[in-house]
Design goal:
The structure is a homodimer. In chain A, about 50% of the residues lie in helices and about 5% in strands. By secondary structure, chain A is α+β, with helices and mostly antiparallel strands. The first copy, chain A, folds into two domains: about 70 residues, Glutaredoxin (3-Layer(aba) Sandwich); about 110 residues, Glutathione S-transferase Yfyf (Class Pi), Chain A, domain 2, CATH 1.20.1050.10. Chain A has a four-stranded mixed β-sheet with strand order 2-1-3-4, with helices on one face. In chain A, strand 3 and strand 4 form a beta hairpin. In chain A, helix 4 packs antiparallel against helix 5 and helix 6 packs across helix 7. The radius of gyration of chain A is 16 Å and the shape is globular. Chain A starts with a strand and ends in an 8-residue tail after the last helix. At the A-B interface, helix 3, helix 4 and helix 5 of A face helix 3, helix 4 and helix 5 of B.
Protein backbone atom coordinates (compact mmCIF):
# COMPACT_ATOMS: atom_id res chain seq x y z
CA UNK A 1 0.00 0.00 0.00
CA UNK A 2 1.11 3.54 -0.71
CA UNK A 3 0.03 6.25 1.72
CA UNK A 4 0.10 9.77 0.34
CA UNK A 5 0.20 11.98 3.40
CA UNK A 6 1.47 15.17 4.96
CA UNK A 7 3.30 14.46 8.23
CA UNK A 8 1.92 17.71 9.66
CA UNK A 9 -1.65 16.43 9.31
CA UNK A 10 -3.36 14.48 12.07
CA UNK A 11 -5.72 13.03 9.47
CA UNK A 12 -2.73 11.51 7.68
CA UNK A 13 -1.06 10.25 10.86
CA UNK A 14 -4.24 8.31 11.75
CA UNK A 15 -3.70 6.19 8.67
CA UNK A 16 -0.01 5.60 9.40
CA UNK A 17 -0.66 4.63 13.03
CA UNK A 18 -3.42 2.22 12.02
CA UNK A 19 -1.27 0.60 9.33
CA UNK A 20 1.64 0.26 11.77
CA UNK A 21 -0.51 -1.17 14.55
CA UNK A 22 -1.95 -3.74 12.16
CA UNK A 23 1.51 -4.63 10.84
CA UNK A 24 0.62 -3.65 7.28
CA UNK A 25 3.39 -3.00 4.78
CA UNK A 26 3.25 0.47 3.32
CA UNK A 27 5.27 3.17 1.66
CA UNK A 28 4.75 6.72 2.89
CA UNK A 29 4.83 9.35 0.17
CA UNK A 30 5.15 12.82 1.65
CA UNK A 31 2.73 15.35 0.11
CA UNK A 32 3.24 18.91 1.28
CA UNK A 33 -0.20 20.51 1.27
CA UNK A 34 1.24 23.95 1.97
CA UNK A 35 3.17 23.65 -1.30
CA UNK A 36 0.01 22.71 -3.22
CA UNK A 37 1.16 19.13 -3.78
CA UNK A 38 -2.36 17.78 -3.21
CA UNK A 39 -3.67 19.97 -6.03
CA UNK A 40 -1.48 18.83 -8.91
CA UNK A 41 -3.13 17.16 -11.92
CA UNK A 42 -1.39 13.91 -11.02
CA UNK A 43 -2.71 13.96 -7.46
CA UNK A 44 -6.23 14.96 -8.53
CA UNK A 45 -6.34 12.01 -10.92
CA UNK A 46 -5.91 9.74 -7.88
CA UNK A 47 -8.16 11.72 -5.53
CA UNK A 48 -10.51 14.24 -7.19
CA UNK A 49 -11.19 15.79 -3.78
CA UNK A 50 -7.58 16.97 -3.66
CA UNK A 51 -7.21 15.96 -0.04
CA UNK A 52 -4.72 13.96 1.96
CA UNK A 53 -4.54 11.27 3.15
CA UNK A 54 -5.10 9.20 0.07
CA UNK A 55 -3.92 5.66 -0.40
CA UNK A 56 -3.28 3.29 -3.27
CA UNK A 57 -4.17 -0.19 -2.08
CA UNK A 58 -2.05 -3.21 -2.99
CA UNK A 59 -4.36 -3.97 -5.92
CA UNK A 60 -3.79 -0.47 -7.32
CA UNK A 61 -7.16 0.99 -6.40
CA UNK A 62 -7.37 4.37 -4.63
CA UNK A 63 -9.15 5.25 -1.41
CA UNK A 64 -9.51 8.59 0.37
CA UNK A 65 -10.94 10.11 3.57
CA UNK A 66 -8.92 9.27 6.68
CA UNK A 67 -11.74 7.61 8.57
CA UNK A 68 -12.87 5.56 5.57
CA UNK A 69 -9.30 4.37 5.06
CA UNK A 70 -8.76 3.29 8.66
CA UNK A 71 -12.16 1.54 8.68
CA UNK A 72 -11.12 -0.37 5.57
CA UNK A 73 -7.67 -1.28 6.90
CA UNK A 74 -9.00 -2.38 10.27
CA UNK A 75 -11.85 -4.58 9.02
CA UNK A 76 -11.87 -7.82 10.98
CA UNK A 77 -9.42 -6.52 13.60
CA UNK A 78 -9.99 -5.68 17.25
CA UNK A 79 -9.92 -1.96 16.42
CA UNK A 80 -13.54 -2.32 15.30
CA UNK A 81 -15.90 -3.66 18.00
CA UNK A 82 -17.64 -6.91 17.13
CA UNK A 83 -20.79 -5.79 18.95
CA UNK A 84 -23.15 -3.99 16.55
CA UNK A 85 -24.08 -1.23 18.99
CA UNK A 86 -20.49 -0.54 20.01
CA UNK A 87 -19.56 -0.48 16.33
CA UNK A 88 -22.28 2.08 15.70
CA UNK A 89 -21.07 4.23 18.60
CA UNK A 90 -17.56 4.08 17.19
CA UNK A 91 -18.90 5.31 13.85
CA UNK A 92 -20.79 8.06 15.68
CA UNK A 93 -17.46 9.30 17.08
CA UNK A 94 -15.78 9.11 13.66
CA UNK A 95 -18.44 11.25 12.01
CA UNK A 96 -18.55 13.64 14.98
CA UNK A 97 -14.78 13.99 14.72
CA UNK A 98 -14.98 15.20 11.13
CA UNK A 99 -17.94 17.51 11.68
CA UNK A 100 -17.63 18.88 15.20
CA UNK A 101 -14.01 18.46 16.29
CA UNK A 102 -11.56 18.66 13.39
CA UNK A 103 -13.07 21.84 11.85
CA UNK A 104 -12.35 23.67 15.13
CA UNK A 105 -9.47 21.97 16.97
CA UNK A 106 -7.44 21.24 13.83
CA UNK A 107 -8.32 24.48 12.05
CA UNK A 108 -7.28 26.59 15.06
CA UNK A 109 -3.96 24.74 15.09
CA UNK A 110 -3.51 25.26 11.36
CA UNK A 111 -4.17 28.99 11.58
CA UNK A 112 -1.83 29.48 14.54
CA UNK A 113 0.96 27.13 13.62
CA UNK A 114 1.06 27.34 9.85
CA UNK A 115 -0.55 30.68 9.06
CA UNK A 116 1.03 32.55 11.97
CA UNK A 117 -2.19 33.94 13.42
CA UNK A 118 -1.91 34.90 17.09
CA UNK A 119 -4.15 32.83 19.35
CA UNK A 120 -5.83 36.02 20.55
CA UNK A 121 -6.93 36.76 16.98
CA UNK A 122 -8.66 33.45 16.33
CA UNK A 123 -12.37 33.64 15.54
CA UNK A 124 -14.06 33.40 18.97
CA UNK A 125 -16.60 30.95 17.52
CA UNK A 126 -13.78 28.64 16.43
CA UNK A 127 -12.31 28.73 19.94
CA UNK A 128 -15.68 28.23 21.61
CA UNK A 129 -16.53 25.23 19.43
CA UNK A 130 -13.08 23.72 19.87
CA UNK A 131 -13.46 23.99 23.63
CA UNK A 132 -16.93 22.45 23.43
CA UNK A 133 -15.46 19.51 21.50
CA UNK A 134 -12.72 19.00 24.09
CA UNK A 135 -15.27 19.26 26.89
CA UNK A 136 -17.43 16.66 25.22
CA UNK A 137 -14.47 14.27 25.17
CA UNK A 138 -13.78 15.08 28.84
CA UNK A 139 -17.38 14.21 29.71
CA UNK A 140 -17.37 11.04 27.63
CA UNK A 141 -14.22 9.79 29.36
CA UNK A 142 -15.76 9.94 32.82
CA UNK A 143 -15.36 6.40 34.12
CA UNK A 144 -14.00 5.12 30.79
CA UNK A 145 -10.45 4.43 29.68
CA UNK A 146 -11.38 4.55 26.00
CA UNK A 147 -14.21 6.15 24.01
CA UNK A 148 -16.09 2.95 23.16
CA UNK A 149 -16.20 -0.20 25.30
CA UNK A 150 -13.19 -1.35 27.26
CA UNK A 151 -10.42 -1.21 24.69
CA UNK A 152 -8.77 0.82 21.97
CA UNK A 153 -10.94 1.34 18.87
CA UNK A 154 -10.73 3.50 15.78
CA UNK A 155 -12.69 6.15 17.71
CA UNK A 156 -9.62 6.69 19.89
CA UNK A 157 -7.22 6.59 16.93
CA UNK A 158 -9.25 9.16 15.06
CA UNK A 159 -9.97 11.54 17.94
CA UNK A 160 -6.50 11.49 19.43
CA UNK A 161 -4.92 12.74 16.20
CA UNK A 162 -5.80 16.40 16.59
CA UNK A 163 -6.69 16.35 20.28
CA UNK A 164 -3.07 15.70 21.20
CA UNK A 165 -2.03 18.70 19.09
CA UNK A 166 -4.72 21.00 20.49
CA UNK A 167 -2.23 23.18 22.37
CA UNK A 168 -0.78 24.26 19.03
CA UNK A 169 -4.11 26.03 18.51
CA UNK A 170 -4.11 27.68 21.91
CA UNK A 171 -6.31 25.20 23.78
CA UNK A 172 -5.16 24.22 27.29
CA UNK A 173 -5.24 20.45 27.70
CA UNK A 174 -4.63 20.85 31.44
CA UNK A 175 -8.26 22.03 31.59
CA UNK A 176 -9.31 18.55 30.48
CA UNK A 177 -7.48 16.11 32.79
CA UNK A 178 -9.33 13.00 31.67
CA UNK A 179 -8.54 13.88 28.07
CA UNK A 180 -4.86 14.33 28.98
CA UNK A 181 -4.71 10.91 30.62
CA UNK A 182 -6.55 9.34 27.68
CA UNK A 183 -4.10 10.89 25.18
CA UNK A 184 -1.18 9.30 27.06
CA UNK A 185 -3.00 5.96 27.11
CA UNK A 186 -3.76 6.03 23.39
CA UNK A 187 -0.26 7.22 22.49
CA UNK A 188 1.14 4.28 24.39
CA UNK A 189 -1.26 1.81 22.77
CA UNK A 190 -0.36 3.15 19.34
CA UNK A 191 3.35 3.52 20.13
CA UNK A 192 3.24 7.10 18.84
CA UNK A 193 6.71 8.60 18.77
CA UNK A 194 6.36 11.92 17.01
CA UNK A 195 5.96 14.84 19.42
CA UNK A 196 2.41 16.21 19.73
CA UNK A 197 3.56 19.79 19.26
CA UNK A 198 6.79 21.13 17.90
CA UNK B 1 -37.24 3.04 17.37
CA UNK B 2 -37.76 6.73 18.05
CA UNK B 3 -36.26 9.21 15.60
CA UNK B 4 -35.76 12.72 16.95
CA UNK B 5 -35.51 14.90 13.89
CA UNK B 6 -36.25 18.24 12.30
CA UNK B 7 -38.18 17.81 9.04
CA UNK B 8 -36.29 20.79 7.59
CA UNK B 9 -32.98 18.95 7.94
CA UNK B 10 -31.61 16.73 5.20
CA UNK B 11 -29.50 14.93 7.80
CA UNK B 12 -32.70 13.92 9.60
CA UNK B 13 -34.54 12.93 6.44
CA UNK B 14 -31.72 10.50 5.56
CA UNK B 15 -32.59 8.52 8.65
CA UNK B 16 -36.31 8.52 7.92
CA UNK B 17 -35.84 7.44 4.30
CA UNK B 18 -33.51 4.61 5.32
CA UNK B 19 -35.89 3.38 8.02
CA UNK B 20 -38.81 3.51 5.58
CA UNK B 21 -36.92 1.72 2.82
CA UNK B 22 -35.91 -1.03 5.22
CA UNK B 23 -39.45 -1.33 6.53
CA UNK B 24 -38.43 -0.51 10.10
CA UNK B 25 -41.05 0.59 12.60
CA UNK B 26 -40.36 4.01 14.04
CA UNK B 27 -41.91 7.01 15.67
CA UNK B 28 -40.84 10.43 14.42
CA UNK B 29 -40.49 13.06 17.12
CA UNK B 30 -40.24 16.52 15.62
CA UNK B 31 -37.46 18.63 17.14
CA UNK B 32 -37.40 22.24 15.96
CA UNK B 33 -33.74 23.25 15.98
CA UNK B 34 -34.59 26.88 15.24
CA UNK B 35 -36.57 26.92 18.51
CA UNK B 36 -33.60 25.49 20.44
CA UNK B 37 -35.31 22.16 21.02
CA UNK B 38 -32.05 20.25 20.46
CA UNK B 39 -30.41 22.21 23.27
CA UNK B 40 -32.75 21.46 26.15
CA UNK B 41 -31.39 19.57 29.18
CA UNK B 42 -33.61 16.62 28.30
CA UNK B 43 -32.31 16.45 24.74
CA UNK B 44 -28.67 16.87 25.79
CA UNK B 45 -29.05 13.95 28.21
CA UNK B 46 -29.84 11.77 25.19
CA UNK B 47 -27.29 13.33 22.82
CA UNK B 48 -24.57 15.46 24.46
CA UNK B 49 -23.66 16.86 21.05
CA UNK B 50 -27.04 18.62 20.92
CA UNK B 51 -27.57 17.64 17.31
CA UNK B 52 -30.33 16.06 15.31
CA UNK B 53 -30.96 13.43 14.14
CA UNK B 54 -30.72 11.33 17.23
CA UNK B 55 -32.45 8.00 17.72
CA UNK B 56 -33.46 5.79 20.61
CA UNK B 57 -33.14 2.20 19.44
CA UNK B 58 -35.72 -0.43 20.36
CA UNK B 59 -33.58 -1.54 23.31
CA UNK B 60 -33.58 2.01 24.69
CA UNK B 61 -30.01 2.91 23.74
CA UNK B 62 -29.25 6.20 21.97
CA UNK B 63 -27.36 6.78 18.75
CA UNK B 64 -26.47 10.00 16.94
CA UNK B 65 -24.83 11.25 13.73
CA UNK B 66 -26.95 10.73 10.63
CA UNK B 67 -24.43 8.62 8.74
CA UNK B 68 -23.64 6.43 11.76
CA UNK B 69 -27.37 5.85 12.28
CA UNK B 70 -28.05 4.84 8.69
CA UNK B 71 -24.99 2.57 8.68
CA UNK B 72 -26.32 0.87 11.80
CA UNK B 73 -29.87 0.52 10.48
CA UNK B 74 -28.73 -0.79 7.11
CA UNK B 75 -26.27 -3.42 8.39
CA UNK B 76 -26.76 -6.62 6.43
CA UNK B 77 -28.98 -4.95 3.82
CA UNK B 78 -28.29 -4.26 0.16
CA UNK B 79 -27.76 -0.58 0.96
CA UNK B 80 -24.23 -1.50 2.08
CA UNK B 81 -22.13 -3.22 -0.60
CA UNK B 82 -20.93 -6.70 0.28
CA UNK B 83 -17.65 -6.11 -1.54
CA UNK B 84 -15.02 -4.69 0.85
CA UNK B 85 -13.66 -2.13 -1.60
CA UNK B 86 -17.10 -0.87 -2.63
CA UNK B 87 -18.02 -0.66 1.04
CA UNK B 88 -14.91 1.44 1.65
CA UNK B 89 -15.77 3.74 -1.25
CA UNK B 90 -19.27 4.16 0.16
CA UNK B 91 -17.72 5.17 3.49
CA UNK B 92 -15.43 7.59 1.65
CA UNK B 93 -18.51 9.32 0.23
CA UNK B 94 -20.20 9.44 3.65
CA UNK B 95 -17.22 11.15 5.29
CA UNK B 96 -16.74 13.45 2.32
CA UNK B 97 -20.42 14.41 2.57
CA UNK B 98 -20.02 15.58 6.14
CA UNK B 99 -16.72 17.37 5.58
CA UNK B 100 -16.81 18.78 2.04
CA UNK B 101 -20.46 18.93 0.96
CA UNK B 102 -22.85 19.53 3.87
CA UNK B 103 -20.83 22.45 5.38
CA UNK B 104 -21.27 24.34 2.08
CA UNK B 105 -24.37 23.11 0.26
CA UNK B 106 -26.50 22.74 3.40
CA UNK B 107 -25.12 25.80 5.16
CA UNK B 108 -25.79 28.05 2.14
CA UNK B 109 -29.37 26.74 2.11
CA UNK B 110 -29.73 27.35 5.84
CA UNK B 111 -28.49 30.92 5.59
CA UNK B 112 -30.70 31.78 2.63
CA UNK B 113 -33.85 29.89 3.55
CA UNK B 114 -33.91 30.14 7.33
CA UNK B 115 -31.78 33.18 8.09
CA UNK B 116 -33.04 35.28 5.18
CA UNK B 117 -29.64 36.11 3.73
CA UNK B 118 -29.75 37.10 0.05
CA UNK B 119 -27.86 34.66 -2.21
CA UNK B 120 -25.69 37.55 -3.41
CA UNK B 121 -24.49 38.11 0.16
CA UNK B 122 -23.32 34.56 0.83
CA UNK B 123 -19.63 34.17 1.63
CA UNK B 124 -18.01 33.64 -1.80
CA UNK B 125 -15.90 30.81 -0.34
CA UNK B 126 -19.05 29.01 0.75
CA UNK B 127 -20.49 29.31 -2.75
CA UNK B 128 -17.23 28.27 -4.41
CA UNK B 129 -16.88 25.18 -2.23
CA UNK B 130 -20.53 24.25 -2.65
CA UNK B 131 -20.11 24.44 -6.42
CA UNK B 132 -16.94 22.35 -6.20
CA UNK B 133 -18.85 19.70 -4.25
CA UNK B 134 -21.64 19.62 -6.85
CA UNK B 135 -19.08 19.45 -9.64
CA UNK B 136 -17.36 16.54 -7.94
CA UNK B 137 -20.68 14.67 -7.90
CA UNK B 138 -21.22 15.55 -11.56
CA UNK B 139 -17.81 14.12 -12.43
CA UNK B 140 -18.33 11.00 -10.33
CA UNK B 141 -21.63 10.25 -12.07
CA UNK B 142 -20.08 10.13 -15.52
CA UNK B 143 -21.04 6.69 -16.79
CA UNK B 144 -22.60 5.67 -13.46
CA UNK B 145 -26.20 5.57 -12.34
CA UNK B 146 -25.28 5.56 -8.65
CA UNK B 147 -22.24 6.70 -6.68
CA UNK B 148 -20.90 3.24 -5.82
CA UNK B 149 -21.29 0.11 -7.92
CA UNK B 150 -24.45 -0.54 -9.88
CA UNK B 151 -27.16 0.04 -7.32
CA UNK B 152 -28.45 2.33 -4.61
CA UNK B 153 -26.24 2.50 -1.52
CA UNK B 154 -26.09 4.70 1.56
CA UNK B 155 -23.74 6.99 -0.38
CA UNK B 156 -26.69 7.99 -2.57
CA UNK B 157 -29.07 8.29 0.38
CA UNK B 158 -26.64 10.52 2.24
CA UNK B 159 -25.56 12.73 -0.65
CA UNK B 160 -28.99 13.23 -2.13
CA UNK B 161 -30.35 14.73 1.07
CA UNK B 162 -28.90 18.22 0.68
CA UNK B 163 -28.02 17.99 -3.01
CA UNK B 164 -31.71 17.91 -3.95
CA UNK B 165 -32.24 21.06 -1.85
CA UNK B 166 -29.23 22.90 -3.27
CA UNK B 167 -31.32 25.44 -5.17
CA UNK B 168 -32.58 26.76 -1.82
CA UNK B 169 -29.01 27.97 -1.31
CA UNK B 170 -28.76 29.58 -4.73
CA UNK B 171 -26.98 26.77 -6.57
CA UNK B 172 -28.25 25.96 -10.08
CA UNK B 173 -28.78 22.23 -10.47
CA UNK B 174 -29.31 22.69 -14.21
CA UNK B 175 -25.55 23.28 -14.36
CA UNK B 176 -25.07 19.68 -13.24
CA UNK B 177 -27.26 17.56 -15.53
CA UNK B 178 -25.93 14.19 -14.39
CA UNK B 179 -26.59 15.20 -10.80
CA UNK B 180 -30.14 16.24 -11.70
CA UNK B 181 -30.84 12.88 -13.33
CA UNK B 182 -29.29 11.05 -10.37
CA UNK B 183 -31.45 13.00 -7.90
CA UNK B 184 -34.58 11.88 -9.76
CA UNK B 185 -33.31 8.29 -9.80
CA UNK B 186 -32.56 8.26 -6.07
CA UNK B 187 -35.83 10.00 -5.18
CA UNK B 188 -37.67 7.32 -7.07
CA UNK B 189 -35.70 4.51 -5.44
CA UNK B 190 -36.39 5.99 -2.00
CA UNK B 191 -39.99 6.94 -2.79
CA UNK B 192 -39.30 10.46 -1.53
CA UNK B 193 -42.48 12.51 -1.47
CA UNK B 194 -41.59 15.73 0.28
CA UNK B 195 -40.75 18.53 -2.13
CA UNK B 196 -37.03 19.31 -2.45
CA UNK B 197 -37.60 23.01 -2.01
CA UNK B 198 -40.58 24.85 -0.65
Amino acid sequence: MQIFGDSKSGNCLKVRWTAELLGRDFTWIEVDILQGQSRTAEFLAMNPAGQVPSVILDDGRPLAQSNAIILHLAEGSGLIPSDAYERARMLEWLFWEQYSHEPYVAVARFQVKYQGRPVAELDPKLVERGRAALQRLEDALQGSKFLVGNGLTLADVSLVAYTRMAEDGGFRLADYPRVEAWIARVEQALDIREPATA
